[in-house]
Design a protein that fits this description.
CATH class: Mainly Alpha
Mean pLDDT: 85
Strand order of the largest sheet: 1-2-3-5-4
Number of strands: 9
Largest sheet: 5 strands, antiparallel
Low-confidence stretches: 51-56
Helix content: 40-55%
Radius of gyration: 20 Å
CATH topology: Transferase(Phosphotransferase), domain 1
CATH architecture: Orthogonal Bundle
Number of helices: 8
Strand content: 15-25%
Number of domains: 1
Order of helices and strands: HEEEHHHEEHEEEEHHH
Distance between the termini: 16 Å
C-alpha cells in the first residue's frame, strides 16, 4: 500500500522497507503492519490527545519528570509549545514503559525504535501468523479463564515490582498471542499486554493505587464471565498492601482475599470512583465500536 505521510521518514531512514496494511485505528493511535528486512513488525502512529479530559491527563502525568526545564515551564503554563511537549512526553512514556517492562520479563510487545512520533515494535501474532486478537474478541472455557487470569495477575505483580502500574488494563488492551513449541511440540496461547502511554510510576503517582485496583478489577470482571468464582476474589488490595509493606516480589504467594480495616467512608473517593466507572464505560463503548483487524 501507499506509505502514509507519518511513516515516510522511517522509510527514508531505512527503518521500514514497506507498509503492508493498516491494522487498526483508534482514538489514540493508528497501527500499521510493516516490513523491516525479513521481519514483519508494526508501526504505531500516535494521534494528538485532544480527546482526553484535563483531569485524566493530570492523573496519569502526575510527577512525570521532564529533563528540559524550558519544556517543564511551558507544560506548566499550557502554551502551544507546552502542549506539544506534553504530548511528546505522553508518547515517550509508552516507549520507556515497554523497554522497562520487557527487561523485567513482562509479556509486552518488543520495542525496536521510536522515531518522529512513531513506535516501531513487535507484531504480536496468533497460531496462523496473523495479528493476535484482543481478549474481548475471544471466548474461553472456565479452565482457560482461570489460567489466563492467574497469568495476568502475576503480570500485574511483575509490573508493580518493576515500579509500573498500567493504568488502563482491560480486555481491550491485552492480546492473546500464540507461542509455538520447539521441535514440533504443541504451542500455547499467552496474554500480551499492550497500550502503555498512560502507565504511571507506582511510587511517584498519588493515583497509582486506585489505578492498580481498577486494573485488577477489570481482569476479575472479564474472566469472571467464564469462571464465576473469580468474581469473589480480591487480588487488588492484597497486592497493593504487600507492595506498601515492602513484602511483594514476583514469587510472593497470593490468596485472592483481603481483610479490610473498618474506617470512615471517604465520600469524595467514592464519588471519584463513580466518575471513573462512568468514563471507563463510555471509553469501553467507543472501543467496541472502533474498527479493528
Amino acid at each position: 500500500m501507499k506509505v502514509p505521510p507519518r511513516l515516510q521518514s522511517l522509510v527514508e531512514e531505512g527503518l521500514i522497507d514497506s507498509v503492508v496494511r493498516q491494522l487498526m485505528s483508534g482514538k489514540e493511535a493508528m497501527v500499521f503492519v510493516v516490513r523491516c528486512g525479513d521481519e514483519t513488525r508494526c508501526a504505531k502512529i500516535y494521534k494528538e490527545a485532544t480527546h482526553r479530559s484535563f483531569r485524566q491527563a493530570v492523573d496519569y502525568t502526575e510527577n512525570r519528570k521532564v529533563k528540559n526545564s524550558r519544556s517543564a515551564r511551558a507544560m506548566a503554563k499550557g502554551s502551544r509549545f507546552g502542549r506539544q511537549e506534553q504530548e511528546a512526553a505522553w508518547q515517550s512514556a509508552e516507549v520507556d514503559a515497554l523497554y522497562r517492562l520487557a527487561a523485567a520479563g513482562v509479556r509486552v510487545p518488543q520495542p525496536y525504535n521510536f522515531h518522529d512520533g512513531v513506535l516501531l515494535m513487535e507484531l504480536v501474532t496468533d497460531a496462523h501468523g496473523d495479528a493476535a486478537p484482543r481478549l474481548n474478541d475471544v471466548s474461553f472455557t472456565a479452565e482457560q479463564a482461570r489460567a489466563h487470569h492467574a497469568t495476568l495477575v502475576a503480570e500485574v505483580v511483575r509490573m508493580l515490582c518493576a515500579g509500573v502500574v498500567h493504568g488502563d488494563l482491560s480486555e481491550f488492551n491485552i492480546l492473546l498471542a500464540h507461542l509455538h513449541g520447539d521441535d514440533g511440540a504443541e504451542g500455547v496461547d499467552v496474554p500480551v499486554i499492550i497500550d502503555l502511554p498512560q502507565a504511571v510510576d507506582a511510587a511517584g503517582n498519588n493515583h497509582a493505587q486506585r489505578m492498580l485496583m481498577r486494573d485488577v478489577a477489570n481482569l476479575r470482571d472479564f474472566f469472571g464471565q467464564f469462571a464465576p468464582e473469580l468474581r469473589t476474589t480480591d487480588y487488588g488490595p492484597e497486592i497493593w498492601s504487600l507492595y506498601q509493606a515492602g513484602r511483594l516480589s514476583n514469587d510472593t504467594p497470593l490468596t485472592g482475599h483481603f481483610e479490610r480495616a473498618h474506617a470512615d467512608v471517604d465520600m469524595r473517593a467514592v464519588l471519584r470512583e463513580i466518575d471513573d466507572a462512568r468514563a471507563e464505560d463510555a471509553a469501553r463503548r467507543l472501543r467496541m465500536a472502533a474498527p479493528h483487524a
